[in-house]
Design goal:
By secondary structure, the protein is an alpha+beta fold. 34% of the residues lie in helices and 37% in strands. Helix 2 runs antiparallel to helix 3. It is elongated and about 115 Å long. The chain starts with 11 loop residues before the first helix and ends with a strand. About 3% of the residues have low confidence.
Amino acid sequence: MTRTRPNQLPSKRQALHAIALSLAGLAALSGPVLAQAAQPPVQRSITLQGEGQASAAPDLAVISGGTQVQARTAREAMDGNSRAMRQVQQALKEVGIAERDVTTSALSLRPDIEYQQNTRRPRVVGYTAGHQLQVRVRDLGKLGDVLDRMVAAGANQVDGLQLTVDDWSKKVDEARTAAIEDARRKAEILARAAGARLGKVLTIEEQGGSPPVPVMRRAAPMAASAEPVPVATGDQTFRIGVNVTWELVD
C-alpha cells in the first residue's frame, strides 16, 4: 500500500486559509484606491475683506447738569435745591424741551465736614443738596440757548454733553452695502488675474456693527450771558467690515 507524504498535497483546511489570506490582501490593496476615488473634488474659493462707512451729522444732544445748594441744615439745603431745580425745569419748558426729554439722573445730600484746627476732630458745618438732570435736545439749533437758559435759571452744575445720532439704522445699511461692494471689487481683481471668475457666495461674516461712541464734551463753568453758547457738532462716522467667501469658477 502506498502512503501519501504529509507535505505532498495540501489539506482542505490549508487551502481555505490560503484563499482567505489572498482575499484579505486584495481588500487591503483596493481599500486606498476606493477611498481615493470616493473623495469629492476640491472646491476652489477666495475670501476677501471689505470695509464700508457712512457719516451723519448728530441730531441729538444730551446735557448732563443740575443744581447744587449749600445750607446750614439738611432741610434748608433740600428746600433751596428744590426751588432752584423748579426754576431750571420751568426754563427748559419755556425753551421748548418736552417733559419726556428731562430725566432726573441723581439726587444727593451730603454733610459738609470741617476739621478743627487743634484737635483735628471732624465737625458738621452744613449740608449740600444736589439734583442732576439729563436733558435731551432734539433741535440742535436750540442747544446753545438751552444751556444759557439752564444756567440763568440756577443750574450751577453743567458737567458736559453728548452728541449722537438718534437713529443709525439707515446709515448702518449704507455701510454694510459699501463693505460688500468693496470686498467684491477686490475679489474680482484677484480672480481675473488668476484666470477665473467669481461664482456663488459661500459665506459672509460681519465685523463691527455698533454705532459710534457719542461725542463727549466737557462743559466749562458758565455764567448767564447775553450771547448764546456756540456748539460745533461735526459729523459722526459709522464703520463696518465684512469677510466674504466666493466660489471660484473657470
